[in-house]
Amino acid sequence: MTEAANERGAEAETTISDGVVDLIGVLAYGELSAFDRMSEDSRTAPTLSGRAALASMAAAEIGHYARLERFLAEHGIAVEDAMKPFVAHFDAFHASTAPRSWLESLVKAYVGDGLAADLYREMANWLDQETRELVLEVLADTGHSAFAEREVAAGIAADARQRDRLALWGRRLLGEALTQAQYVVAERDGLSELIVTGSGDLSGIAGLFRRLQQGHTKRMQVLGLG
Amino acid sequence: MTEAANERGAEAETTISDGVVDLIGVLAYGELSAFDRMSEDSRTAPTLSGRAALASMAAAEIGHYARLERFLAEHGIAVEDAMKPFVAHFDAFHASTAPRSWLESLVKAYVGDGLAADLYREMANWLDQETRELVLEVLADTGHSAFAEREVAAGIAADARQRDRLALWGRRLLGEALTQAQYVVAERDGLSELIVTGSGDLSGIAGLFRRLQQGHTKRMQVLGLG
């Protein structure tokens, strides 16, 4: 047990494991990043209603963030401390995958949120009931997916060359996301313990990764990019 | 009565005047602009908690925006149509007053929100009860003011030269805001009618402007820049 976990024990009624703190921390920073990304995209939306729609989805992510912050606070943890280990990896992912167009940013949000949701939903099964319900609650789609599907379909219909370019883009996003996720897990003992224990063994982890890739393939097909 | 107002009459139970549509439209675009500004500022916040705090305030502005959108929809008006006449003026104001630092952006939000709130609060007195309550509700401070006061006080304490620079900045913001506000009123018949009728006469308008300037002076003093 780390020092931080010992201090937490002194402050809070129930302690949560380092792995759960990591998981909630990475979820919280994911929400804050999603807010950033959607609010930035809203500024480049081609219409005023697209702009307002994205701003509303960004605001909903902050509602999820507040839930996670409260959960951690109830267990004596500052959300900033829980998020800090993940800032650099998220930011590296975003820097290496900066969208160059409105459609690229929609595909990125769609693919990234989908991957993250699949991963967290699997992990939720390994948690106690309270934490599981929290994780499932903040994974609720803020409406971005349906919005992205409509916009991408319209964009491909208007310009067929977009299709191939966006299909390549989706493939690159998957690669970059899995790379950063592997760095994160390698660095965080609590998180990797949670994953190893939860998935059972090495073949369990391989199965998890396979399912994540299958989910990605399915999403690209839904977007018309498969 | 404009054509738009006639169409509205056919769709909705109660019609609202062109001036009220303008007022709600300008408020709605103000909320969307405030969201943009705060979400952008959140990205440059010097700390992770400052970043989360600004993101939460930005999200609260979108809550206000949704209230205004619903009110207009209940009267058969699309919020996009009501906002459209004001987009260029708001964007011109923001382009001519792009902050060059974290403290400049906080002062801008503080001064801009304060001015807007003073103006809308006066105008709320001229409205029917339902509309008045809506306007007062969406003017509720999202917590930004107290946050800005703390950050600016800390910034001035750390670097005294900042004080003079920020004081000049506040003066320039007032000038640019009043310039754009006058353009808006000159272009929108419904809005200028609302203001002339509400304030009584030309001396009433002069009094309104005087009070806006006094409110600004007071705010600059609260920030330690007066």
From TrEMBL, chains A, B:
Superkingdom field:
Bacteria
The record's annotation in InterPro entries points to:
Ferritin-like, Ferritin-like_SF, Ferritin_actino
Where the record annotates domain Ferritin-like, the positions are 18-197
Instruction: Identify the SUPFAM superfamilies for this entry.
Output: Ferritin-like
Instruction: Supply the name of the protein.
Output: tRNA-(MS[2]IO[6]A)-hydroxylase (MiaE)-like
State the species of origin.
Answer: Amycolatopsis marina
The uppermost taxa in this organism's lineage are: Bacteria, Bacillati, Actinomycetota, Actinomycetes, Pseudonocardiales
